[in-house]
Amino acid sequence: MNNKEKGKNELEKLLKGNKNFVNGCPTAKNMCLETLKKFAFHQEPYAAVLSCSDSRVVPEIIFDCGIGELFVIRVAGIALGPNVIESIEYAVKKLKVPLLILLGHDDCGVMKYAKDNYPNMTKDFQSIMSAVYPVLDKKEDIKCHNFFAMEHTKWVETTLTDKSKIVSNAVKNNDLLIAKCHFDHSTGLVNLI
Question: Which of 6, 16, 40, 73 is least enclosed by beta carbons within 10 angstroms?
Answer without folding.
Answer: 40
